[in-house]
């Protein structure tokens, strides 16, 4: 295959670059386990166990077959390889063991390996960033050795890399003799990588399937903590990808004010909060098997905010995280979703479409509304929504989401709020629109429903009571009201 040959050529090129000053290793290895191949490996491969997910108890040492036996590596199970990112403290961050635990909970027979490259990861950022080449090379050698020595299939290998670790995983994927099954990039690092040649960073060619979560892409490119451009087959941008709910500075300061020093420590967590959210979303997908979080293909986050992208036709929607459908397209697919501020993160998405009638021509901007959804199971009241614009005799579409699984939707109410600040414009004149029907489409169930005003027409006045809409009774009722 041409692509494969090209990849091999890049591998050699990449090898040459990082192997300068070392003995040549790019030549085909026809005898497995040549000791000299492994002498340069500094990364350590800790096979964690379900019983002790927190500790490095046994290391797999490339070239030493007995280490694999001693660590009870299961040759028939799949293997997860977790690669951490840059670290200031030189220690594992607390998410490592949480991810290991969640992987074992979902796949009890699997092998979960944590790559320890802490020494190389605790340098000046730029140095650690360039060390991803060395780490990727180490991981590739390790994986190739497992295949050559034990016939362990690379179809069983799933690399999970966070921040700089995502690029190390990408480099590893470029260098292995055969393609690795899957790489998951958890908010791959942005600085030094946003504009880097794809031979130096995570890219779709690095595994049979590459999925990426982008959770902290705020700021100008190359200064953003997480990479902004799509680098996988599927690139998911939760909450637009720039930052995550529950992670804002206001909440950080509040924590410090409330909790003093302890708050300060938690605040440090909040600084990394959006970046690390990528990991916790993935953990969520491992733990809540029966409630997969859905993401939707969309051309922009603005279009997603308008509720225009909740379709599942032709693979337009997918599961976030572990149970993603491995849909591969030539170009990266950008997907979006909303989440809660804490675990479990799943929300239910609805597109709401309304035609605003009025006798006068009016245009109002940035108007606050409260939407309530009443369903067969639960209700979700007073969901705040700000509409950028509403105007006479036009249809507007917007996104409403709630963490509550309301079941089948029965009633929708809508209330037009007054702004909290006094506005002279509305002192003597209360704007009013009339609404006949509300169209709602559920992203999670893909159901489309129409809701009618009980009286044929309902009036929505700013600062007044809520207008109520119920399921339209059959086709005729819908027609009568139109
Ligand atoms: C290895 O994993 C397989 C499933 O892939 C499982 O059936 C088997 O019991 C495991 N072996 C050991 C020794 O745990
Ligand atoms: C990336 O680097 C390779 C090898 O030097 C080069 O052939 C390729 O054109 C570069 N790609 C881009 C997009 O610059
Ligand atoms: C809006 O449409 C309604 C019904 O079609 C019509 O009665 C009304 O005059 C229109 N309003 C304006 C401002 O044109
Ligand atoms: C409202 O605006 C539309 C388009 O700008 C115009 O055609 C219509 O005549 C206006 N109606 C009234 C009642 O001013």
Folded structure, characterized:
There is one protein chain. The chain has 482 residues and is of the alpha/beta class. Helix content is 27%, strand content 27%. The protein has nine helices and 21 strands. The chain has helices spanning 2-18, 65-70, 95-106, 118-121, 125-150, 164-175, 249-287, 301-305, 474-481, and strands spanning 44-48, 59-60, 79-83, 111-116, 157-162, 180-186, 207-213, 234-238, 294-297, 317-319, 333-337, 348-356, 363-375, 379-391, 394-402, 409-416, 432-435, 437-442, 448-453, 458-461, 467-471. The protein is elongated, with a radius of gyration of 26 Å. The N and C termini lie far apart (59 Å). One 2-acetamido-2-deoxy-beta-D-glucopyranose binds at residues 357, 359-361, 392-393. It comes from Eublepharis macularius (Leopard gecko).
Span between termini: 59 Å
- Helical content class: 25-40%
User: Order of strands across the biggest sheet?
Assistant: 2-1-4-3-5-6-7-8-11-9-10
Uncertain residue segments: 1-36, 476-482
Give the cofactors and ligands. 2-acetamido-2-deoxy-beta-D-glucopyranose
Helix-strand string: HEEHEHEHHEHEEEHEHEEEEEEEEEEEEH
Oligomer: single chain
How many whole angstroms does the radius of gyration measure?
Answer: 26 Å
Dominant shape: elongated
Q: Helical element count?
A: 9
How do the strands and helices of this protein lay out in sequence?
Blueprint: H1 2-18, E1 44-48, E2 59-60, H2 65-70, E3 79-83, H3 95-106, E4 111-116, H4 118-121, H5 125-150, E5 157-162, H6 164-175, E6 180-186, E7 207-213, E8 234-238, H7 249-287, E9 294-297, H8 301-305, E10 317-319, E11 333-337, E12 348-356, E13 363-375, E14 379-391, E15 394-402, E16 409-416, E17 432-435, E18 437-442, E19 448-453, E20 458-461, E21 467-471, H9 474-481
Parallel strand pairs: 3-4, 3-5, 5-6, 6-7, 7-8, 8-11
Antiparallel strand pairs: 1-2, 1-4, 9-10, 9-11, 12-15, 12-18, 13-14, 13-16, 16-21, 17-20, 18-19, 19-21
Helix pairs in contact: 3-7, 5-6
């Amino acid at each position: 295959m041409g692509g494969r040959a090209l990849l091999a050529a890049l591998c050699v090129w990449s090898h040459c670059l990082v192997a300068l000053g070392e003995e040549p290793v790019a030549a085909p290895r026809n005898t497995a386990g040549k000791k000299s191949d492994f002498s340069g490996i500094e990364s350590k491969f800790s096979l964690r166990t379900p019983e002790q997910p927190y500790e490095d108890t046994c290391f797999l040492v490339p070239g030493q077959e007995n280490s694999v036996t001693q660590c009870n590596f299961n040759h028939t199970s799949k293997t997860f390889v977790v690669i951490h990112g840059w670290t200031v403290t030189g220690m594992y961050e607390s998410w490592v063991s949480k991810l290991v635990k969640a992987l074992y909970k979902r796949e009890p027979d699997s092998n979960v390996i944590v790559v320890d490259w802490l020494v190389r990861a605790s340098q000046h950022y730029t140095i650690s960033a360039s060390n991803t080449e060395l780490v990727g090379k180490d991981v590739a050698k390790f994986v190739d050795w497992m295949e050559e020595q034990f016939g362990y299939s690379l179809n069983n290998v799933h690399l999970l890399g966070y921040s700089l670790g995502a690029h190390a995983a990408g480099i590893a994927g470029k260098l292995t003799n055969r393609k690795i099954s899957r790489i998951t990039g958890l908010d791959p690092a942005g600085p030094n990588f946003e504009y880097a040649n794809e031979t130096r960073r995570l890219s779709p060619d690095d595994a049979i399937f590459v999925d990426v979560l982008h959770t902290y892409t705020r700021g100008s490119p190359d200064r953003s903590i997480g990479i902004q451009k799509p680098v996988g087959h599927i690139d998911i941008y939760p909450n637009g990808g720039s930052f995550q709910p529950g992670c804002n500075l206001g909440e950080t300061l509040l924590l410090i004010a409330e909790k003093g020093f302890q708050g300060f420590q938690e605040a440090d967590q909040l600084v990394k909060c959006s970046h690390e959210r990528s990991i916790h979303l993935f953990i969520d997908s491992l733990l809540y098997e029966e409630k997969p979080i859905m993401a939707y293909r969309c051309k922009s986050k603005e279009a997603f905010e308008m509720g225009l992208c909740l379709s599942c036709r032709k693979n337009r929607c997918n599961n976030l995280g572990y149970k993603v459908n491995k849909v591969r397209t030539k170009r990266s697919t950008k997907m979006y979703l909303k989440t809660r501020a804490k675990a479990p993160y799943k929300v239910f998405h609805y597109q709401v479409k309304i035609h605003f009638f009025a006798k006068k021509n009016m245009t109002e901007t940035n108007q606050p509304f409260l939407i309530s959804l009443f369903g067969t199971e639960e209700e979700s009241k007073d969901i705040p929504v700000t509409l950028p614009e509403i105007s006479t005799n036009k249809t507007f579409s917007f996104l409403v989401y709630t963490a509550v699984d309301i079941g089948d939707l029965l009633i929708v109410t809508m209330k037009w709020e007054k702004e909290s600040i006094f506005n002279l414009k509305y002192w003597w004149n209360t704007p009013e629109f009339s609404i006949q029907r509300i169209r709602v489409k559920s992203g999670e169930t893909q159901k489309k429903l129409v809701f009618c005003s009980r009286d044929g027409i309902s009036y929505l006045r700013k600062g007044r009571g809520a207008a109520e809409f119920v399921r339209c009774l059959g086709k005729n009722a819908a027609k009568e009201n139109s």
